[in-house]
Fold:
Amino acid sequence: MPPLKTPFEVYRHKVLLLRSFPKSVYPIIYRIKADFELFIVK
Structure:
């Protein structure tokens, strides 16, 4: 998979990813993904 480039692609990927999990794990997945994205940006 090529790296996500535009904010729209990142957002779309995040939405698709979150939809595949129960709502109870949303905060956990979102926090992990946010930390991961911060790490990639830096």
In short: The longest helix spans residues 26-41. Residues 7-41 form one domain. The chain has a mean pLDDT of 74.
